[in-house]
Specification:
With 273 residues, the protein is α+β, with helices and mostly antiparallel strands. The chain has 4 domains: 9-111, Arc Repressor Mutant, subunit A; 117-159, Winged helix-like DNA-binding domain superfamily/Winged helix DNA-binding domain (Arc Repressor Mutant, subunit A, Orthogonal Bundle); 162-213, Arc Repressor Mutant, subunit A (Orthogonal Bundle); 219-272. The protein has 13 helices and 4 strands. A 4-stranded antiparallel β-sheet has the order 3-2-1-4. It starts with 8 loop residues before the first strand and ends with a helix.
């Protein structure tokens, strides 16, 4: 004899609107609260008082409700700004949505044009161009970190023209040059070039920026910076060296910090007197 599993039956005895969420409905089966659904699910399954449901039907309803709730969460996440597919994927993972459900939701969002990595990349680049002083390489890196494919990111970054890169870089560099520094003139320029490269600008743009601004040397500021660095070095070396050896160590230390040899010799000559 073959055992046939018979589904249990339950009847909807009450449907009530939730007090704090008017678009959600509480479903009571056999006078006991069973689950809640959105209005969309209520309509989709034609849920009404007196309707009899099998276990399988209840499972389908709750599964569909869970899917719909996750989909709405993704829509709400998108309402603040455009998102990449990977950002949606990461967000739903935090919400403990099953991977297969996540991919289904992403597929639907793509069909409905709520997410589009090509458009996202373009919008992201425009935002970075207008709101930051970052170069193209750093922006492409950020896009890749958000899950955008390299091909898509590299195609979109063409929006950031060479002229726009140059203007952004030179504006930032000029602002940095106005700041007081304890470094030598050469060291300041070297540091500035490194920072521009770290911000994502190419060597071509960086070199053109320096060819354009040609930052003048401020001899007074240079001497002040030299004296400050020399005092620090002297205090360190004087503990181990004396006389000519001390002066040689001091000169070498200042030279490594980018100070010009004539200024170094001039300063050391004063110390010998």
């Amino acid at each position: 004899m073959i055992d046939i599993e018979v589904s249990q039956l339950a009847t909807i005895t009450k449907i009530s609107i939730q007090k704090k969420a008017v678009d959600r409905y509480n479903i009571f089966l056999d006078d006991n609260y069973a689950f809640s659904v959105t209005e969309d699910i209520l309509i989709k399954f034609n849920l009404r008082k007196g309707l009899t449901l099998t276990d399988e039907e209840i499972g389908m309803i709750t599964e569909s409700e869970s899917w719909h709730r996750s989909y709405v969460q993704a829509i709400q996440f998108l309402s603040y700004r455009m998102r990449s597919k990977q950002e949606i994927r990461d967000y739903l993972k935090k919400k403990e949505v099953a991977p297969n459900v996540t991919e289904e939701i992403i597929a639907r969002l793509e069909i409905e044009n709520y997410i589009n990595d090509k458009e996202f990349a373009k919008a992201f680049i425009r935002d970075r161009m207008n709101q930051t002083s970052k170069g193209p390489r750093l922006i492409v890196k950020e896009l890749k970190e958000k899950g955008v494919k390299a091909e898509t990111a590299n195609e979109a970054i063409t929006l950031y023209s060479y002229e726009r890169q140059f203007q952004t870089a030179i504006k930032w560099a000029q602002k940095q040059l106005k700041r007081k520094s304890n470094q030598s003139y050469n060291k300041q320029n070297e540091t500035l070039k490194i920072k521009l490269m770290q911000k994502g600008f190419t060597s071509d743009v960086v070199n053109e920026v320096f060819a354009e601004i040609k930052p003048p040397i401020d001899k007074v500021a240079e001497l002040e910076a030299l004296e400050l660095q020399a005092n620090k070095l002297y205090s360190r070396y004087a503990k181990k060296y004396q006389g000519n050896e001390l002066m040689m160590k001091l000169k070498a230390g200042l030279y490594r910090r980018g100070f010009q040899s004539d200024l170094i010799n001039e300063y050391v000559a004063k110390l010998d007197k």
